[in-house]
Amino acid sequence: MTASGDTSRRRFLLGACALAVPVALAPLKPWRAIVEVSGSRTPAARLAGLLAHRDSARSLGRAALGALPGATTPSALVAAVLAGVPGGPAKLAEASDDDLRALVATRVREDFDSEDTVQVDGWILSCTEARLCALASVTRAG
Questions:
Q1: Contact in structure between 135 and 74 (CB atoms under 8 Å)
Q2: Which secondary-structure segment (H or E) carries 75?
Q3: Backbone angles phi, psi at 125, to 5 degrees
Q4: CA 135/CA 127 separation, integer angstroms
Q5: How much is the average pLDDT of 89-116?
Q6: 48 in Cβ contact with 64 (< 8 Å)
Q7: How many other CB atoms are found less than 10 A from the CB of residue 109?
Q8: pTM beyond 0.85
Q9: CA quadruple 10, 14, 16, 20: dihedral sign
Q10: What is residue 62's three-state secondary structure?
Q11: Contact partners, residue 32, CB within 8 Å, separation at least 6
Q12: What is the enclosing helix (H) or strand (E) of 120?
């Protein structure tokens, strides 16, 4: 083998390793620590930030504030949403946004199953959805 053959093989192996490292680390989600450190948000902003269409959620949330039972302060809304999520406030601190979306989606389905709903501007929302929209209307989330 020539020196250029070794260099070529060495470059190939280094390139293959460079491509394999991100693929191998993907299940560990190493970027999560960076996102969490840079994105330290309040619980209300974090929950409201789960909503995909925030502008629509904010306008629906303003109407939901009058339809929701109980207190409608940001802290009361957060407590009410997290009361129905397994793990509660501790789960909010440790879960990724995707995990949190899944937990909230499960809670929304449970609300509909138990008919824990409110009517807001012609929409029938689960109380969890209404609270998230209300949070979006009273917080500055993304």
A1: yes
A2: helix 74-83
A3: -115, 150
A4: 12
A5: 90
A6: no
A7: 12
A8: no
A9: positive
A10: helix
A11: 96
A12: strand 117-120
Residue with tokens 């689960």: 126
Determine contact, residues 73/137, Cβ cutoff 8 Å: no
Is a pLDDT exceeding 70 seen at residue 6?
no
Q: How many CB atoms lie within 10 A of CB 94?
A: 10
In the numeric block, which tokens belong to residue 37?
């450190």
Cα angle 29-35-36, degrees, rounded to a multiple of 5: 100
- 75 token code pair: 């802290």
The pairs formed by 102-110 with CB atoms below 8 angstroms and a separation of 24 or more are 104/47, 104/50, 104/128, 104/132, 107/81, 110/84
Q: Is 61 in contact with 137 (CB distance < 8 Å)?
A: yes
Calculate the CA 93 to chain-centre distance. 11
Tell me: the pLDDT tens digits for 11-61? 777 666 566 666 666 666 555 544 444 345 788 888 988 888 888 889 899
∠ Cα 42 62 100 (to 5°): 40
